[in-house]
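Section 5.1 Outputs to date
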Amino acid sequence: MGRYKKVKQVRVNILEGPGVKPFGAFIKDGQLSPGFVAQDQKATVHPYLLSLVNSNPCNCLLGVDSGGRVYYGTRIGGAALKKVFDQTVGGGFVIETREGDEPKVVAYAGIKYVTCKSQNPVQGDLPVYLYCGTMKNGRVFAGDNHNRYTLKWSGVNGWNDWAEGGAAGAGSLVFDPEWGYVMGVFDIAGELIVLMEFGVARLDVGGNPETFKIKEIIKCPISWQYCAVKTEDGLLFLTHSGLMRYRDGKVTAVEGLITDDATNPTLCSGWHGRFFFACAKSRSLNRSVIYVYDIFHDAYHIVDIPANAVHADSLSVLAYTSSTVYRLRMEYSGWNYEVVSEKINFGSDMRKLATFLEVDCDSGVTVTVSNGRYTRKYASPDKKIRLNMRGSEFSVTFTGSSGRVRSAYLTAEVPE
């Protein structure tokens, strides 16, 4: 008489496998939730924007691209921008401020500025050459493009007051070159934070008369230009060692998909203080994608389009490729997410019998199981399905639009 091979039952949590890469869905704590997906907006060339402000009071959009070109549009339509001027000066930024009782949006582009206040844009010349900055205490604080180790600030009369002299006038501060160039300027929790190439500087700005001095500089890995985003209580920024967080005077590493898989980032953006977007090349996929990080839930996913820039306004998130602009939405019903598991071999290279698939999910979710030779597809599967599928390794794919997957397990009889 022959002997039956001894087998053991092995049960694998599919959504917690190390090779799971979510496209258009977040995976956190063994659950899959629909995330941002892309809708094709318009087939035209769009600017590689560094800064974009969508001003409700002024009813306009004002943006600056990497060449210092300024773009203007109305808030209706969101993505339709026309060039104000085409002068390659390198970098720039946009702020919202007030002039008297009127709201105003100002774009700084090298030695030029563009303003709008509920009307067509007006441009003019600047006595300074700025490339990144923010507004704080009625003054503009910005990096100086003539000397990138220098932080400049305007006088108390606001965005276009650059006359130096006295406590109320414009001024500047030069950092030690060992910290590298100024990479970004942010107003965070009442502090002025300057991101340097090799550190995060905290500045004491205030008093009567006002004083401007460095409190401390916290060392960090080399930062990428244009890849820092202000959050509700701090700063997220990409470095050559991955994603970092500045909060409460400390810099810490943020583990996960972006840090492990992203390389050569081009631009980052944030949305509603909750989401962080990074355009970068995926090491594992060998192509450019958008990484999305849910800050509140510490969860990640990928939007698989080759964007080189992404910008968030109050309406939605816009992602730009060389030929198309995409509007990213949460749970957009016309586009399915796809999540593919790693190859599951249950810890053995021998052939085995996959016996059960257990899925707890919403309606509208389709689950596909493959052994490399053939597949089986289940629409909105019941909690436990008998498979009886033989093979050496298996993969499981989830597709859907707005459906969640709360848990997913695959069980097999594995020869001992």
